[in-house]
């Protein structure tokens, strides 16, 4: 029944709308709003036990609700909640999403999994025998590590992040200076970019390596390999690019590179576990790249400039609807469609939330931050409607095909 499938969705909505703002408010009153993301992730993992993807997405969406609630209350703690430990580039909400996924995917007591494909399908379910030996239960086989997929993931992660960083530096998108000549002082926009390039590279490398033999089954090893490749290539390069600025930028750039790769690894693991989510993540990587080009220094032709902002504002919701409908139709269920539709917007939101709006610092940081927040708020409604419509039309189409072919249960004489 489709109503039974809505129960995890309803629970995820409650987790997002209630515990996340409540935890943020309590921590703010205590004067330490930084751990809001990890604490929300722990709560989501416990309350959404058995639905790890829903728990992770609920944590990130709960971060958007917490930011809105604190802003409406006149409390400016959104930047502190995102940058846990008060370090720009330390993704508190993304860390919370990873904790939520790990807690929600753990097996139930008694060795019975709540969710098929739970976390031990990768680690291997192992029981200790009285004699001290171990055995793998029936139906669970240990697969050898796919060396080709892991190698491709590491190499692709390194090549993609190095290429993006070099291109951004050449195009003037990354300046790492104390003063941006065309838009005032600040470098938080560059911190966000330092998070984004490794995150996008790891996502793309994971999706690419997942198409190789054994890549999708190694949903933990492949993203981690891509993360290591991106860290080894992108970390030193970002550190070197930030050496021209005074103060902390070089160290923050290195930290942001590692944190961004971690966000990408979490998203890449989700893409390998849920194939429909991979398409949404890749689409939003492309969209975020187009948005960066729109903010590049220089003048665009007037017709292009007039159309760019409305198009870039509406296209994300069109992509959410298409991706959610595609995944829901293929699975004939709403849940996969909702996960696929939300993965991309929440990836972008996780990156921007790690740094914050910084409205006092740079408009090219605050404007995309607000757009990411708006997209994260509205994407669930768009994805849910598109997934539901796709399931209904898919069922009606199947019924129509059966009728047109003259399907009958009457026996022939």
From TrEMBL:
Top-level taxon of the source organism: Bacteria
Transmembrane segments: 12-30, 42-67, 147-175, 195-212, 219-239, 251-270, 277-294, 306-325, 337-357, 369-391
UniProtKB keywords: Membrane, Transmembrane, Transmembrane helix
Protein name in UniProt: Uncharacterized protein
Source organism of the structure: Nonomuraea wenchangensis
């Amino acid at each position: 029944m489709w109503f039974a499938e809505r129960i995890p969705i309803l629970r995820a909505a409650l987790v997002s709308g209630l515990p996340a703002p409540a935890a943020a408010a309590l921590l703010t009153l205590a004067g330490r709003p930084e751990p809001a993301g990890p604490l929300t992730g722990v709560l989501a993992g416990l309350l959404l036990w058995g639905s790890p993807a829903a728990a992770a997405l609920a944590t990130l969406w709960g971060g958007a609700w917490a930011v809105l609630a604190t802003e409406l209350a006149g409390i400016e703690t959104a930047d502190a909640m995102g940058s846990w430990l008060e370090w720009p580039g330390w993704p508190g909400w993304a860390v919370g999403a990873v904790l939520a996924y790990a807690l929600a995917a753990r097996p139930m007591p008694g060795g019975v999994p709540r969710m098929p494909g739970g976390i031990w399908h990768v680690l291997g379910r192992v029981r200790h025998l009285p004699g001290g030996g171990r055995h793998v239960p029936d139906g669970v086989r240990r697969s050898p590590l796919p060396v080709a997929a892991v190698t491709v993931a590491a190499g692709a992660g390194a090549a993609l992040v190095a290429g993006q960083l070099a291109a951004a530096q050449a195009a003037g998108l990354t300046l790492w200076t104390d003063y941006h000549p065309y838009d005032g002082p600040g470098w938080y926009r560059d911190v966000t970019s330092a998070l984004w390039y490794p995150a996008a590279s790891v996502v793309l490398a994971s999706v690419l390596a997942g198409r190789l033999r054994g890549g999708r089954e190694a949903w933990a090893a492949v993203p981690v390999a891509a993360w290591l490749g991106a860290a080894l290539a992108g970390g030193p390069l970002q550190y070197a690019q930030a050496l021209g600025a005074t103060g902390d930028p070089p160290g923050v750039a290195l930290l942001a590179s590692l944190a961004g790769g971690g966000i990408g690894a979490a998203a890449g693991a989700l893409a390998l576990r849920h194939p429909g989510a991979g398409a949404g993540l890749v689409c939003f990587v492309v969209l975020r790249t187009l948005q960066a080009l729109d903010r590049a220094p220089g003048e665009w032709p007037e017709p292009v400039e007039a159309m760019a902002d409305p198009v870039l504002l509406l296209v994300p919701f069109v992509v959410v609807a298409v991706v959610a409908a595609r995944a829901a139709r293929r699975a004939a269920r709403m849940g996969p469609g909702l996960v696929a539709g939300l993965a991309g917007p929440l990836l972008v939101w996780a990156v921007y939330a790690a740094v914050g709006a910084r409205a006092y610092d740079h408009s090219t940081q605050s404007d995309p931050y607000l757009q990411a927040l708006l997209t994260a708020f509205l994407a669930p409604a768009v994805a849910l409607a598109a997934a539901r419509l796709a399931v209904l039309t898919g069922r009606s189409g199947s019924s129509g095909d059966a009728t047109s072919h003259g399907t009958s249960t009457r026996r022939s004489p």
